[in-house]
Amino acid sequence: MYSSVLVILISLAIGTIAYPSTWDHVVHERRQVMPEGWNRHSRLHPERVLPMRIALKQSNIDDLDSHLMRISSPDSEDYGKHWSYEEIVDMFAPSPDTVQAVHDWLLSAGIIGDRVSKSRSLGWLHLNVSVGEAEALLRTEYHLYEHEVTRQGHVACEAYHVPRHIQSHIDFITPTIHFDTKVLPSRTNEKRSGAGFGHSGRPPWLPKVSPIAKPILNNLQDCHNNVTPDCLRALYGIPSLPPGMRTNVKYTPQSYLGSDLDVFFSNYSKSQVQRRPTLLSVDGGDVNDIPNLGQNTESNLDLQYAMALVNPLNVTLFQVGDMIETDYTSFNNFLDSIDASYCSSNDATDNVTSPTVDAIYPDPLPGGYTGPRNCGGHAASKVISTSYSYNEHDLSPAYETRQCNEYAKLGLAGTTFLYCSSDYGVAGSQGRCLDPTTKSYNDGSSGSSMFVPSFPSTCPYVLSVGATQIKPNASVTEPEIACSTKIASGGGFSNVFQMPSYQSQAVKSWFRNYPPPYGAERFNNSQLTRGYPDVSANGARYVVALLGGYNYHLYGTSASAPTFGSILALINEARMNIGKGPIGFINPTLYAHPYLLNDIVNGTNPGCGTAGFEASPGWDPVTGLGTPNYPRMLQFFLSH
Description:
This protein is of the alpha+beta class. It has two domains: about 1-60 and about 95-175, no CATH class; about 210-640, 3-Layer(aba) Sandwich (Rossmann fold). Helix 1 runs parallel beside helix 4. Residues about 1-15, about 180-205, about 240-255, about 320-330 and about 345-360 have low confidence and may be disordered.
């Protein structure tokens, strides 16, 4: 496979030919509406340089789902037989015909072979092109866009074209129509809990924050008011000091404050005072020790609880991105760092001055990270929890599908990916709804606003985690309800991804037995698409130390995802202690054995001028299958 490609690359350096004007070009991707908050400004100068990335069509990708289901279903003879990275690369590498066709196309446009680098799996081509070259190649126009609140810049086009005979060989090309939601500059206001960035003055991916006026005791009788690690242990049957380890992902400028960890541990996990997570830096990511409510909130929450729940072993922290590229660091930068087959092998991009979809490293901006881009340098941990999300509507289906397939490949390797389902009920990750005619965002006050699904939760290959809470004045031993205090558990149905086979029976049962009072005017009710969340965990009134040890209440699926992930990490550790491998992609097992979870049957997830969906017996698009039951889950996974 590799020798044949080498011959292609050598032949490309011999010369160039004119780009045939007679080729039949077709639209490859077109953006229907402008993402919320962005305005188009000037055309880009034709000599500006763009780092272009071409996602080549992968071989055998239609078989990816069946391969993953076979090793992830506990009744299968191949259950738990995870693949090596080499096996994954070999199975899904693009065909030589695809590589040849796309290289011939680039050559015809005057882009010779030594300008093109490839990923280890050959799945990506990376090249630097001028704006003029890109516009001629893709039959499009590039403009600079600006976000009306953050003033963040972005390069994009409205649509782009490729020759008809090339279209079947390409998934997508960047930078083009994609507005990958970035980690935005923090503007948190702890006294407000509005419905989205630009309304509450806070980034939509941060958990809700409220100050606590009095000291909090570690008291199981008070869990309905103040959730502490012991409350979570009591809720889900977690032993006090089990061995374990897990991974958390943070995107700069989010960073924990060590002194806050120590204050929290001194109250709730004394043996961990002065303990810190193991830092794995991605593209210059580092810990910023300056107190800042907006920048410390997410990291402090996740690490204080993850470390306490899996004590005494370490938590690993992936800190992604330097302090200069904080507007652009994305999920793809993290995926690059753990899978070289997803990442271009090119270590540098010269003369890059235009912002694009993902952060560019080495960072060309003053003060930026100048080392080589992390490309497969970090091994993927076996449980990875991420507390950020996009709106599915803001990214193209091709872009989302490619990233979703990467989660599936990492599932083949034995990694469990968890994502929060968002905090705005049926109103997506930013508390926004859609006009049914224009498909543009509105505030949900319209009587006909459509629900907005959250990505990556709609990807069938991640475990989507919603939020629950203890009922007011209830005991910690009583059943929880769907979270409705300050946040609402994100949930709904995808407009992009088909319903996975493991979920079909549960979702169709919900439609049959508990049909919602809405039709296609509100959400995708075809019963053919992915429903989310899959599971849930407590997401209300977490006591967190911030700003030098002051106590705050935090709310959100940002808390639910790492809590559930900690439990899966404990189970992995117990399996490894008896010579078994990691649980890997867990969704098929949970849907086949829902008794492993505590079913949540009360509550709703309001949004878009509605009460949202209702929790009900079995799976529902509010709390999924329910909350973790550690003793049942441990017994099951130790026996398989």
